[in-house]
């Protein structure tokens, strides 16, 4: 099939506003279906987890990166992944003294452009899907982490802060029925 | 408003140029979750397409103003054909980075138009299961088109079909055609 004209943009990219508005439509729909902020946060986290589980394959295939030496290494790779998939570079800071916990600071977040939270949704973590993505992706490389938002620009904070805590290293488990 | 933190009103921020882009995999996976979410709440293919179309409508409603402010300096189209060409070229280029492939007028029905797109972005990563042969997830985009048309006062129904890639069938309400004729007569 002949393709008419030249694509003005990279075919591997998509307009970020389409993405922003699509995500907005999804959150609005879930909010309508569940009518409860906490339940919506859970749904978003679960969807993010499903995305992360698959996204890690794409990441590994494209970057060919090997295992991480430590959590700092992981944090750097997460930063790179944010650049690859969301075209933003969060800063990595607020390391805990033990080095098992850090924060990703998002100065601009493509998910929340055009977004304003209506009154009465103080508990809604609008970008919670990102926490799920991190958890899902890292679980697939044997790292169990907890990820949660501690600050959110939508709620009036000066930046959006995603906290990541290393929980444990998962042992290679054989899939059921394959021994 | 009671909160002590100062929220910045969205209208106080300057409007971006809208040129930023993100990886298509990110969008593909998000859309995949959307389809699954909708799928879990319906029983039939038409219902699923309806859900996707509703979500697209939500996106389209928000896209109308953005497009006209940026591309047309606030001026809306008033002629039917100009409106359709606007969708085919301006909207398509802004959202999908290219123009739609074809715009056709139905031979046997003056209120029906077809907008043809060989490869829609949403179907790029979707393989339709055999038992759901008629499912076209571009219903999402059909919803967007419908919202843009309705938002510009051209009430219409838009549906997505598998034909030459994806064909969006746009059926305008009688009133739109009637208005168009009176405008031409002047």
From TrEMBL, chain A:
Gene: LOC106478333
Name this protein carries in UniProt: Trafficking protein particle complex subunit
Primary location group: endoplasmic reticulum
Keywords: Endoplasmic reticulum, ER-Golgi transport, Golgi apparatus, Transport
Primary role: May play a role in vesicular transport from endoplasmic reticulum to Golgi.
TM regions (residue ranges): none
Short name of one Pfam family: TRAPP
Oligomeric form and interacting partners: Homodimer.
Organism domain of life: Eukaryota
Similarity field: Belongs to the TRAPP small subunits family. BET3 subfamily.
Keyword Transmembrane helix: no
Keyword Endoplasmic reticulum: yes
Cell compartments where the protein resides: Endoplasmic reticulum; Golgi apparatus, cis-Golgi network
TrEMBL record, chain B:
Gene3D superfamilies in alphabetical order: Trafficking protein particle complex subunit 3 (3.30.1380.20)
InterPro entries xref list: NO_sig/Golgi_transp_ligand-bd (IPR024096), TRAPP-I_su5 (IPR016696), TRAPP_component (IPR007194)
Main location: endoplasmic reticulum
CDD domains in the cross-refs: TRAPPC5_Trs31
Keyword line: Endoplasmic reticulum, ER-Golgi transport, Golgi apparatus, Transport
Localization per Swiss-Prot or TrEMBL: Endoplasmic reticulum; Golgi apparatus, cis-Golgi network
Function according to Swiss-Prot or TrEMBL: May play a role in vesicular transport from endoplasmic reticulum to Golgi.
Quaternary structure (record): Part of the multisubunit TRAPP (transport protein particle) complex.
PANTHER family: 41-2 PROTEIN ANTIGEN-RELATED, TRAFFICKING PROTEIN PARTICLE COMPLEX SUBUNIT 5
Family, per entry: Belongs to the TRAPP small subunits family. BET3 subfamily.
Protein name: Trafficking protein particle complex subunit 5
Species this chain originates from: Limulus polyphemus
């Amino acid at each position: 099939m002949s393709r008419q004209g030249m694509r003005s943009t990279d075919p591997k990219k998509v307009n970020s506003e389409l993405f922003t508005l699509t995500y907005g439509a999804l959150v609005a729909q879930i909010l309508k279906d569940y009518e409860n902020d906490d339940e919506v946060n859970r749904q978003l986290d679960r969807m993010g987890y499903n995305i992360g589980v698959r996204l890690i394959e794409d990441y590994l295939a494209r970057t060919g990166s090997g295992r991480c030496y430590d959590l700092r290494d992981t944090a750097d790779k997460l930063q790179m992944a944010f650049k690859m998939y969301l075209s933003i570079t969060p800063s990595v800071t607020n390391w805990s003294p033990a080095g098992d916990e850090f924060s990703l600071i998002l100065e601009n977040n493509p998910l929340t452009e055009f977004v304003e939270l209506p009154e009465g949704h103080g508990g809604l973590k609008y970008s919670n899907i990102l926490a799920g993505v991190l958890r899902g992706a890292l679980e697939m490389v044997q790292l169990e982490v907890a990820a949660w938002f501690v600050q959110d620009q939508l709620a009036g904070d000066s930046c959006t802060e995603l906290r990541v805590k290393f929980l444990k290293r998962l042992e290679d488990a054989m899939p059921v029925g394959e021994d | 408003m009671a909160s002590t933190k100062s929220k910045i009103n969205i209208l106080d921020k300057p409007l971006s140029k809208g040129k930023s882009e993100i990886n298509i995999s990110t969008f593909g996976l998000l859309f995949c979750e959307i389809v699954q979410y909708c799928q879990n709440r319906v029983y039939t293919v038409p219902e699923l397409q309806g859900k996707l179309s509703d979500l697209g409508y939500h996106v389209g409603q928000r896209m109308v103003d953005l497009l006209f402010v940026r591309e047309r300096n606030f001026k809306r189209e008033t002629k039917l054909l100009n409106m359709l060409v606007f969708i085919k070229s301006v909207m398509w280029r802004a959202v999908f980075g290219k123009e739609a492939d074809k715009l056709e007028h139905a031979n046997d029905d003056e209120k029906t138009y077809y907008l043809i797109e060989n490869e829609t972005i949403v179907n790029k990563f979707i393989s339709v299961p055999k038992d759901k042969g008629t499912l076209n997830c571009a219903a999402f985009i059909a919803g967007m088109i419908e919202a843009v048309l309705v938002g510009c006062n051209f009430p219409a129904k838009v549906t997505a079909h598998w034909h030459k890639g994806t064909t969006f069938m746009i059926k305008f309400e009688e009133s739109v055609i009637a208005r168009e004729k009176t405008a031409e007569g002047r």
